Amino acid sequence: MSKAELIFVPAPGVGHIVSTIEFAKTLILRDDQIQVTILVMKLPITPFIDAYTKSLTASQPNIRLIDLPQVDLPSSELLAKSVESYICAVIESYKPHVHKIVSDIVSSRSSSDSVPVAGIILDFFCVSMINIGDELGLPSFIFLTSGSAFLSLMLYLPSRHQQIGAEFTFSDSDVIIPGFANPVPPRVLPGALFNKHGGYAAYITVAQRFKDAKGIIVNTFTELESHSLESLHDGQNPKIYPVGPVLNLIGHPHPDMDHSQWDKIRNWLDEQPDSSVVFLCFGSGGSFGVSQVKEIALGLEQSGYRFLWSMRVPPGEDEASKLKNPEEMLPEGFLEGIEGRGMVCGWTPQVEVLAHEAIGGFVSHCGWNSILESFWYGVPIVTLPIYAEQQLNAFTLVKELGLAVELKLDYRSNGDVVKAEEVERAVRCVMESENEVRKKVKDLAGMARKAVMDGGSSSTSITELIKDLRKYV
Ligand code: UPG
Question: Do 185 and 116 fall into the same domain?
């Protein structure tokens, strides 16, 4: 087999970088003639991404990182109006640099003995760069860091936009989206789709380009989202490759992690009975204000279960964001009151926690990586989505797949407060040993592992993808 190069352009966020890099590694493991170049963007809202990317790719001779030059960033007013339009604006500014680097790579490979570029693999936020591939004669593929439910939404949005041409509103009737078995309530759609200040426009612009990709690689597996994946195979959409779960199971060396605290947590977990601890963690950016933290704390206390809670101080201008330590948000005397039954912490290596036998349930913001990691270890989820497509993921897990316990599907942090009693109920429900969801998720863990083994559904899909990519060199 001859050598071939792939150029990856991931978005600069933890939830995007980790699975993208892991996927690049998977391709190289499967075909050692593949070389990967990753173009690295930097964003001030994720300052550690650079070091993070380097540590995830260390000792990978077939992966080369190229730092893209700094660009002038859009104004903070734009960020305040819509995170999505801010990210898209940053990505637009990077486009000329990406164009230059990719075209330099292509022209340096013109001799017959050099390694040809087989294609560009873009994060979904970077789909406007499909133009670069087109201009340079390279096929562009999307690597989707979320699941098939989100893909269904993105493939549906352009036709709705053509008919209606305006943002969603919370009072809209439920939406029929191909790929969903149930009508989808507007309240579980990504917040950006209601945003009149650029969020909706940014989403539509991204969604409109999905059909221009040569293929869409999705971090999901057929056994998890069979209905959705089957309905998207309609001959109209680009070819879809379910290749997941693509996971980094080694824990992430995040700069915010306090190693001595993690040692204490690990020792504490080792002392707890199997499946007795509920873990709460809300992704790389999820946080709550003081009043919500108080309700969660009370709910945990009233549930009587052991817990490990990874907390963050929220960004912004309010009282809570001025606190230095997330523990300061807890009600006074809370930690003393629970008498060693629970621990709170900052960044923890989530995969290591989920793998621990003491963990019996996971209250999650339903970021896609967290969902896949939890399923991999057979840990049932309680849904508390916060932003991005997390509400849609929560809806998919609870209503479409029956694979999670509902706490909230449509939580919006700017106004909603989930009450302690609701937290208590959901925690009790997920921790019950006879819970139906627990049994289903245990079975799913086996299916996830089979999917990525030789001959499994995702493994077969990766073989097909490599074959298809090689047709372009
Ligand atoms: N993580 C830790 N420790 C922590 C917090 C997070 O190891 O204390 C890891 C976690 O294991 C996971 C990643 O960080 O691998 C977080 O990814 P994810 O669960 O997907 O959440 P986000 O960081 O919020 O991810 C963004 C979006 C989310 C989307 C995802 C993939 O917010 O909605 O599904 O990207 O596109």
Answer: yes
Residue 266 within any structural domain of the chain: yes
For 237-296, strand residue ranges (E) read 239-242, 277-281
Rounded distance between C-alpha atoms, residue 163 and residue 174, angstroms: 16
- Measured by CA distance, the residue closest to atom 30 of ligand 1 is 15
- 153 pairs with which residues across the strands? none
Residue 186 in tokens: 């507007």
User: What is the predicted ipTM?
Assistant: 0.99
pLDDT in tens, 7-44: 999 998 888 999 999 999 999 999 999 999 999 998 77
399 plus 456 within the same structural domain? no
Which of ligand 1's atoms lies nearest the C-alpha of 390? 33
| Cα 251 to ligand 1 centroid, rounded to whole Å | 12
Both tokens of 313, joined, read 């101080």
Judge if 230 and 373 occupy the same domain: no
105: CA distance to ligand 1 center in Å? 32
Same domain flag for 163 and 174: yes
Whole-model pTM?
0.96
**Which residue do the tokens 């604006």 mark?**
89
